[in-house]
Amino acid sequence: MLPRRRNSLHSVKRPRLGERTMLACIGCKQKKLKCDGQSPRCQNCSRNGRDVALDHLVESDKDPQTAEAHQHNASQDDGQGGASIDVEDPADQLSADVALLCLSAAGKEPHYFGPSSAVSFSRIVSAAMKLPRKVGGSQNSVLMAENAAFSSARLFPISFPSPALGSTLSQAYFNNLHPQYPFLHRPTFEFWEDSCMKADASGNLYVAGDIALFFVYATASLALGPAHYDTAESYYCMALEHQPAVLELDSIESIQSLLSCAVYSIRSPAGGSLWRISGVAIRYCVELGYHRSVNRYRKQSNPLVAEMSKRCFWVAYDIDRVASFILGRPVGIPDDSIDAEMPLDIDDANINTLGFLQDPRTSNSEPPTKMTGAIHIIKLRRLWSKIGNSIYPTITNSSVGQDVAQKPLIDKLAQELEEWHANIPVPPDVSDLDPLSVFASREWFRLAYDHSILILYRYWITHVPPPGEEHGVEEALEICFHRARDLCLLYRRLFQSQSIQFTWGSLHILFLGGLTYLYCIWKSPRLRQSARKMEIINTCMACNTALVIIAERWSNAGAYRDIFELLSERTISLVCGDEGKAPEGSHTSIPTFNQGMVNPEQAPLEDWIVGLGDSGFPMDSEWLVQELLQGMRNTQPSEQGYDVEQPPSMNLQ
Fold first, then answer.
1. CB-based contacts of 20: which residues, under 8 Å, 6+ apart?
2. Which residue ranges have biased composition labelled Basic and acidic residues (predicted)?
């Protein structure tokens, strides 16, 4: 329960949205002085004879993706936008935008990318498709626009929802999001909600409530669509206002608070860093012993607490694994430190503090529950951990080539994925409901399988095969080609539904699926020759159409739509020539360009790619892709089989 408030919950403070100097020197920060951000020394340091470095600030008031991109740009005058920036050796634009997409998919992030992240793969796509790199010169920094719905959101005083609206919001959450992240107990939530409704009716709302209640309302408002975004952020601010007090409880409520914040962040660019939130949630779980066996270490817990502790831990594990893989970072807790049992396959209504009202589901022949899908997701994330630990090299791995040569290991993991796919549960019938999320659409597991196959083979297909394994790589390219195609076609069909809302994660999966499809075509002459031209055109258009639909509802996706449109046109020209031009009326024409963006019909390809936007690729991760680029840079299409390259060299600069 929330602590009592001094003031009513009916008003929310508006956060400061004004401009602020993006750079501050260490001296001014230590002495708490206002810094003008001048380089190499500010006025305060000049007067006092200090010579100190500038320390980059990430402005939490601003859009997180925009702030991240600013950190690796040169200093600029305070209050002057669109300054000209000299860049000695920027990463190619595709990799820069994929880096930004990785950050977006995982929330507001620092900027270290590991080998499992999409940044490495995007560099290889650039090399395989002969995309040029712009070196030197002065250019405008065309950053992605801040999310319009949130940067301009009007935080207005908001009252507790009416019983009808509250019911709509809670049902939207528990029907669409709770089955994927079941860390709340619905009967308990309904008790909280009823208490708040009664307290609000009596004018004493401050005596009741719980932080999860307002997070649920906030996340459900996001799921209902853009018309509810203002309300969503207001509820979110109401929840955050009380979160510190709940975290101090060091209890299961603290973990539920963090996971509620994480689920909101998954669906909103205004949320916090999934990497940090899931990491903190994991550490709370470890501190409370939730990563250990309930049967061995917490036998005295009542059935409800024991079961919810397992759910909280495994949901935190799920989110942690996704964020870690997107960013290529170490996981929050290694698998060999975990012996917690999996959650029981039982509906919320059938569990309370006294025990279970019916036996948990134990056989695939039994009807699924609302927990069945979430348990199967956890099994997939554990497979992801195996893939990450086995396929993608660590910093201390002395022989990357040995990892690439382990095809029997890849085959074993592929078999485990096939077994997981064969046991996908039949979801509960929700035909009478309009799904508000991809998970609720009954197609989530198919997309997850396709994406997992791409994760498994991506490292294999982008590295030089050991002698005698060229045919195995060609087979892997064909597998990725078909899985990426199916992923693009399915996303187009899903996103044509007006009710399904998007996340940065779904954009990340779709965009990387499309890039993988193009990469396979460029890399494999056999695929170029055997695939039907109309199938290639249709798949490229499917991915582009899905990106167009996302961009129409979510303006920040426009850059990825534009990039994929250009790359797909280049690929279609490679395969089909002039006859591969898309029919008139299809959405593959060059998009409308914003001010400062170069028209590709009037400038070389290089200039247009640079003009798509400079997202400030993090230079700290340069070493992660250097080895991949060495062997790919001079790849030439070969009509006789697998493209042969020189072995990549290791350069950890």
1. 57, 59, 61
2. 62-71
CA dihedral 527, 530, 535, 540 (to 10 degrees): 20
Report the alpha-carbon distance of residue 146 to residue 230 in Å, rounded: 15
Burial of 578 (0-12, 13-18, 19+ CB in 10 A): exposed
How far apart CA 64 and CA 201 sit, in angstroms, is: 38
Classify domain 25-56 at the CATH topology level. CD2-Gal4 (4.10.240)
- Burial class, 148, CB count within 10 angstroms (exposed 0-12 / middle 13-18 / buried 19+): middle
Q: For residue 503, what pLDDT band results from cuts at 50, 70 and 90?
A: confident
Whether the pLDDT of residue 412 is over 90: the answer is yes
Q: In this structure, what token pair is assigned to residue 298?
A: 């917490």
Name the token pair of 456. 């498994």
SS3 content of the chain, % helix, strand, coil (to 5): 55, 5, 40
pLDDT of residue 590: 31
The pLDDT of residue 372 is above 70: yes
> Would you state the pLDDT for residue 107?
53
The half-sphere exposure of 599 on its side-chain side, counting CA atoms within 13 A, is 5
Give yes or no for residue 15 having a pLDDT over 60.
no
User: Hey, what amino acid is at 264?
Assistant: Y
Distance CA 48, CA 27 (A): 10
Q: What does the angle CA 114 – CA 117 – CA 122 come to, to the nearest 5 degrees?
A: 115
Asked if residue 21 has pLDDT above 80, the reply is no
Q: What is the mean pLDDT of the chain?
A: 71
Degrees, nearest 5: CA angle 634-635-638 = 140
Residue found by looking up tokens 């250019």 in the block = 139
User: Phi, psi (5° rounding) for residue 356?
Assistant: -105, 135
Phi-psi map region of 35: left, alpha, beta (phi>0 left; psi -120 to 50 alpha): beta
Give this prediction's pTM. 0.70
pLDDT band at 272 (very low <50, low <70, confident <90, very high): confident
- What are the distances in angstroms from CA 493 to CA 438, 451, 477? 11, 17, 25
Spatial separation of the C-alpha atoms in residues 321 and 174, rounded to whole Å: 23
Report the helix count and the strand count for the chain, using DSSP H and E.
Answer: 25, 6
The DSSP secondary-structure symbol of 41 reads -
Six-digit token string for 259: 């996971």
- C-alpha 107/C-alpha 36 separation (Å) is 29
- In the chain, what are the domain boundaries? 25-56, 87-144+413-653
